[in-house]
Amino acid sequence: MSKLIKVLKLESGSSQRGANQNRSRALVAGGAGFLGSHLCERLLRDGYDVVALDNFHTGKRYNLNALLRNPRFTCIEHDIVNALPLGLQFDEIYNLACPASPPHYQEDPIHTFKTSVLGSLNLLELARQNNAKIFQASTSEVYGDPFVHPQPESYFGNVNTHGPRSCYDEGKRSAETLFFDYSRTYGLDIRVARIFNTYGRRMQPDDGRVVSNFIVQALRGQDLTVYGSGMQTRSFCYADDLIEGFVRLMNAPSAPAHPVNLGNPGEFTIMELATLVISYTNSRSKIVHRPLPVDDPRQRKPDISFARANLGWEPKISLSQGLAQTVDYFDTLLYGSKLVKGAAAS
């Protein structure tokens, strides 16, 4: 049985939406999330009628507050693990519906796996019924703890199938399989992006990913928690750059025959990131070390040669620029201003 569907919009707005039948209609599953809300915003700017679908497990209603005033935007509360509402009609479908940080996806690992597999099946069937293009937000986690560096799309990865992270890693790998099988079997137009570490406005203080963890700890005057030596590396892509990559991949004249890496190839150690965050927050926080979690990757850097050559895409926002904006966002979120830096939480 489907969950109760709640339309977070005045009925007058709903009746206005779709008045221009020539406009393209897009569904964003996970539309209230960190990246989903940015994508909804971008699609509305591009002239789409947009419907966000979200169960609000990690997505936040307030991410959509400004969008709900737009007559071309609607939000439906629904879990894509369950059968989708009847009568949905779209030209494009974006699947961003899945918790993406370890604390969130490990909280209910079975549901996380179901979201990737059953949710993908439901959306693929909807795309088949509508003859719609469909986009899958996959992840660099499919590469696991890689033996190849940087990671090209051709690398099959090194993933632990039964570790505590596997509900997410293997769920996303399974979703990729479903997408390409639907393409081969039904001729469905699919686009699959492998997303590398992303940060920016609308991340949550309890998100659990390293950029938000460090910034929140620094702003609260707490010690920054570095797991392991801190010499493991990551590549950090600002959300605006990533959304541009989504749109370019979806709008490409032909579907790539493989997943496409989208991320910033600039590579930083976790210790370098911690030092930068302390500097940008003017914090007196110290760095403390804790044991490395199971299956935490040692290196992560995308090879974006395909995206550069075929989509004309590469990130434009440097880590220093993106961190400055993200620190201001969290400072405002936590304290209501951009004046309090490094103060201990009251």
Write up this protein:
- With 346 residues, the protein is of the alpha/beta class.
- It has a domain at 6-197 and 239-263 and 300-315: 3-Layer(aba) Sandwich (Rossmann fold), CATH 3.40.50.720.
- It is 36% helix and 16% strand.
- The strands form four sheets. It has an eight-stranded mixed beta sheet, with helices on both faces.
- α4 packs parallel to α5 (166-186) and α8 (270-281) crosses α10 (319-335).
- It is globular.
- The model is unreliable at 1-6, 9-19 and 339-346 (pLDDT under 50).
In short:
The chain is of the alpha/beta class and 346 residues long. It has helices at residues 11-16, 34-45, 102-105, 109-130, 166-186, 210-219, 239-251, 270-281, 305-311, 319-335; strands spanning 6-7, 25-29, 49-54, 73-77, 92-95, 133-139, 190-195, 198-199, 224-227, 233-234, 237-238, 260-262, 268-269, 287-290.
Key phrases:
346 residues, alpha/beta, Rossmann fold, eight-stranded mixed sheet, two-stranded parallel ribbon, globular, disordered C terminus
Average pLDDT, rounded to a whole number, is: 91
Shape descriptor reads globular
Q: What is the CA–CA distance across the termini?
A: 45 Å
Percentage of residues in helical conformation? 25-40%
CATH architecture label of the domain at 6-197 and 239-263 and 300-315: 3-Layer(aba) Sandwich
The secondary-structure element order is EHEHEEEHHEHEEHEEEHEEHEHH
